[in-house]
């Protein structure tokens, strides 16, 4: 058995900055409400016709591959996590295989686990490397939310929160099993599936034909829905549980954490976790202020920024944790 380690990280966000004041011009909201409830000051939105979920993922991946110090054709497998794919099918994994210009017809897997997508993706990649099947696996989290949000007052509870961007990591075989990814922990609770969801178009209830036939201006089934307070309450419990589960599995405790990278769902959730585990400000990384909630991209973007700012050093215990739609949640325990 081997371990896997993160050998390269990269992220990409579109240039177009959308502030809370910008949003207040198109819907009934304000900077004070958004900052107080979420911590978000601004986010990035793709200008139509420029980037896609795939193109952002490719740009993040190119950076990660370069930093891993490998040739792109040394990548053995692609894992792509998103809830906002370019197409209904095929998923963006194969588009990355094409757009990176890979010579080999390596496998590409799409992960549909929303805010936990990157954590799930890392877990999948880790298993392939641990078993010896692959040496280098590319894991991407990328989201283009802005084109699919209800940018009117009706959608304000959700639309002010989400932002666009991508992050990527290369996982590489590590012979020293005391280093790298020590363990991953995944959970789901499908009974709350609709509490944070986008129902249409789906074969289950509403397909495109139904939406067109109804032509109902009140139809919100193709916009994301979130029962915010219910999701919040579950998030703080599940974040705490899954971080503790990971620590205990490795005979560690909260005092051993050097850097916690939580999914950037809400600054208040991160602050709750920080307080609960008695962590100092420099032991939890937050960048939701700049990018909003970028779902599957939030952890790799935050991890890359923390690493670029030299907040993560060799030997550090780094914990990744996510919670979101599904509900799904998970953690990754890493000895850097
Ligand atoms: O990433 C996946 C996981 N996601 C999360 O963990 C998110 C968890 N939930 C949250 O972060 C919070 O619930 C929100 C930030 C989404 C909302 O904050 P809240 O404190 O739960 O507010 P609320 O939804 O209960 O709304 C409070 C009030 C309502 O008005 P009334 O009914 O009290 O008059 C809303 O209509 O705030 C109103 N409101 C807004 N006002 C200004 C909702 N959205 C906005 C807005 N601007 N954008």
Task: Name a few traits of the molecule.
336 residues; alpha/beta; 5-stranded mixed sheet; single chain; binds oxa(dethia)-CoA; globular; 23% strand; 4-stranded mixed sheet
Could you give a short description of this structure?
The chain is 32% helix and 23% strand. It is built from 11 helices and 13 strands. Strand 12 (317-324) and strand 13 (328-335) form a beta hairpin.
Describe, in plain words, how this protein is organized in 3D.
It is a single chain. By secondary structure, this protein is of the alpha/beta class. It has eleven helices and 13 strands. The protein has helices at 20-24, 31-38, 53-68, 92-99, 117-130, 156-159, 208-214, 228-249, 267-276, 288-291, 298-308, and strands spanning 3-12, 17-19, 42-44, 77-81, 107-111, 136-143, 165-174, 180-188, 196-197, 225-226, 259-262, 317-324, 328-335. Helix 8 (228-249) runs parallel beside helix 9 (267-276). The chain is globular, with a radius of gyration of 19 Å. The two termini are 18 Å apart. The chain binds oxa(dethia)-CoA. The site of oxa(dethia)-CoA has 21 residues, from helix 2, helix 6, helix 8 and strand 12.
């Amino acid at each position: 058995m081997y371990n896997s380690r993160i050998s390269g990280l990269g992220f990409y966000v579109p240039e177009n900055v959308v502030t809370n004041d910008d949003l207040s011009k198109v819907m009934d909201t304000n900077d004070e409400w958004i900052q107080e409830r979420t911590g978000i000051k601004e986010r990035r939105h793709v200008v139509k016709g420029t980037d896609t979920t795939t193109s952002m993922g490719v740009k993040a991946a190119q950076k990660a591959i370069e930093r891993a110090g490998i040739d792109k054709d040394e990548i053995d497998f692609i894992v792509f996590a998103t809830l906002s794919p370019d197409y209904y099918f095929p998923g963006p994994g194969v588009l990355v295989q094409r757009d990176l210009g890979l010579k080999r017809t390596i496998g590409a897997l799409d992960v549909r686990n929303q805010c936990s997508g990157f954590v799930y993706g890392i877990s999948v990649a880790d298993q392939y490397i641990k078993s010896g099947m692959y040496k280098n696996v590319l894991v991407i989290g990328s989201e283009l939310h802005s084109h699919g949000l209800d940018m009117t007052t009706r959608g304000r509870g959700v639309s002010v929160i989400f932002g666009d961007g991508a992050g990527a990591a290369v996982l590489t075989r590590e012979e020293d099993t005391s280093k790298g990814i020590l363990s991953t922990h995944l959970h789901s609770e499908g009974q709350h599936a609709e509490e944070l969801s986008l129902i249409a178009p789906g074969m289950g209830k509403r397909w495109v034909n139904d939406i067109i036939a109804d032509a109902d201006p009140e139809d919100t089934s193709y916009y994301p829905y979130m029962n915010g307070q219910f999701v919040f309450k579950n998030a703080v419990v599940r974040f705490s549980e899954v971080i503790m589960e990971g620590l205990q599995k490795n005979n560690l405790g909260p005092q051993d954490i050097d850097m916690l990278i939580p999914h950037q769902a809400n600054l208040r959730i991160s602050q709750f976790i920080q307080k609960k585990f008695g962590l100092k400000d420099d032991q939890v990384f937050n960048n939701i202020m700049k990018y909003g909630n970028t779902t599957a991209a939030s952890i790799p973007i935050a991890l890359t920024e923390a690493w670029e700012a030299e907040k993560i050093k060799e030997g550090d215990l780094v914990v990744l944790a996510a919670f979101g739609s599904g509900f799904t949640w998970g953690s990754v325990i890493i000895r850097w």
